[in-house]
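Quick one, T. Sequence first:
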Amino acid sequence: MLPTLPDAPIGIFDSGVGGLSVLRHIRAQLPHEHLIYFADSGFAPYGDKPEHVVTERVLAIGAFLVERGAKAIVVACNTATVAAIAALRARYPGMPIVGVEPGLKPAASASRNGVVGVLATERTLAGAKFLLLRDQIAAATGARFLLQPCHGLADQIEFGTLDSNETDALLRRFILPLLDEGADTLVLGCTHYPLVQASIERVIAAATDRPVTLIDTGEAVARQLARLLAAGGIVRSTTDVPARLDGYTSASSTALSSAFTGLLGIDPPVHEVAADGAGGMLIGQNN
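Structure tokens:
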């Protein structure tokens, strides 16, 4: 039997482990909520796939989370948000669904000189919704947005190589041209990127003495989720039953377990999931 609201879990998903950067903010702001995290690592990255493919995956994962009783869904992936959150909301019109988008508005407000660099996947930066948002905010604030596709960076993070010469080389390749053009604010426009924030800060410090502000929207996503749960009267109250976190992955349970431990310092149960012939999800072995 599926749990009844408000004791039902919140479903959170990403193309891989990047959404853990959002999960940590949700756990901090909503410590009593049951959570399900789905890492679609078997189909990562989303950023180089056609939009219709990403939409099909998002709808399949949404159905998987709803079958497990999710009362709300967080699309903890910028690419998936841009490509498919409208389709997901149309499929589940009565459900709170929160996406993540590059923080262009807070970046424009934070910038001192109006030059903002945006680090994101190619798919995110090419999305019509993103480009419309950029144009609207640029017109309203006068900010100049420098768009930098970061091909391969999410893959490096997904592989667990957070602090390596290869990752540092990619970061220098993507960040230094933005700094050379005067950017004083950088948007971390993929949920994977906050996981290497320390490396990003190191690259910036080696390149310039100017202060550079980094924008991570994970905390704002958690706040919006909390507002929607409160508005719907489905916040889980404090009980004697502790909050539970379950992980699912379309790839290796060992890899996701290692990510939970290495990035968040926790060890929840993790389940491997396979896609059936119809594109749905099937639970495989547990870890």
